[in-house]
Amino acid sequence: MSRDEIERCSPSRKDGIDSVLETRLRYSYCSYLQSLGMRLELPQTTIATAVVLCHRFFLRRSHACHDRFLVATAALFLAAKSEETPCLLNTVLRASCEVSQNPEFAFFPYLFHGDWFEQYRERVTEAEQMILTTLDFELDVKHPYAPLTSVLLKLGISRTILFNMAWSLVSEGKFLRLYLGNEDEGDFKILRMFFTWEAAFLWLRSSLWLQFKPHHIAAGAAFLAAKFLNYDLSFFPNFWHEFQTTPSIIQDVVQQLMELF
């Protein structure tokens, strides 16, 4: 789907939720998932999968009819299973209760009575089943990490600052000093400023996952990293071919990535 189709045809529009409000709602459940996933010490791949499952769910269901935090909790539980990093449901629920102490994620006012935990468990289980049926039990999520690594390795630029920066755009956002080599201190400082979790996680909050294939996002991340570092990609004429994309697709990905900073 195109960006325009996603924004115009969202089921939330029928319930009076405009694209600006829906973007805020999307950002809030992404932030919640990030906080919950980190508390559970889950890999970034698992967290990213949960985010994509939520995006897919709300592409088909209205925010007005579904508690986004309940859906996100169930999505992370599902993602942990599908990515083979399983967590006990009770562990996920307790962690989510701890995360909800942040006023930004407060969503338990109706649970504060005697059997609230059992009710919460039941509601998350119901949300899990709704996600499964809404997505036709399709939980497979392809990430841009593999194509990014394989293509840059093939092009011979997998051990450079460009690789580190591109990886940060689609990965954990931590400072990955895989190889600094002879790069000067100026470039090092650029990376230190750039590799923050918030900057790297922003792209997951957007609708890029719903618009483009993983290798297109990987190509956009590599191209944007090269732009930041003034890295001349003309030395790699096969760049587009290796990522199986076109300049116009990359420009679209890069433009949307840039809007997030």
Automatic annotation (TrEMBL):
Residues 31-133 form the Cyclin-like domain. Coiled coil: none annotated. One of its GO terms (molecular function) is cyclin-dependent protein serine/threonine kinase regulator activity. GO terms for biological process: regulation of transcription by RNA polymerase II. Keywords: Cyclin. It comes from the Eukaryota. InterPro entries: Cyclin-like_dom (IPR013763), Cyclin-like_sf (IPR036915), Cyclin/Ssn8 (IPR043198), Cyclin_N (IPR006671). It holds the Pfam family Cyclin_N. SMART domains: CYCLIN. Belongs to the cyclin family. This is Cyclin-like domain-containing protein. It comes from Ananas comosus var. bracteatus.
